[in-house]
Amino acid sequence: MGSNNFKKVHFIGIGGIGMSALAQMLADEGAVVSGSDRSESPVTEMLESKGIHFVIGQNLESVPSDADTIVYSDALELADPEFMKQVRALGMHTISYFGMLGKVSEGKRTVAVAGTHGKTTTTGMLAKILLDVGANPTAIVGSIVKDFGSNYLAGKPMWDISCPTSDVGHDMSDMLFVVEACEYRDHLLELAPQVLVINNIEWDHTDYFPSLEALQETFRKAIARVPESGAIVTNPHDSNVAPLLASAKAKVIDYTQEPAYELRMPGEFNQMNARAAAAAARVVLARMTPGVGNYALTPGVDGLIAESLANFHGTWRRFEYKGKSVNGADVYDDYAHHPTAVRATLEALRDKLRKATPCGKIFVAFHPHLYSRTRDLLDEFATAFGAADKVFIAPIFAAREVDDGTVSSEMLAERIRANGVDATALDFDAITQAFAEAGPGDAIMTMGAGDIYKIADKLVCIS
Question: What is the dotted CATH code of the domain comprising 3-100?
Answer without folding.
Answer: 3.40.50.720
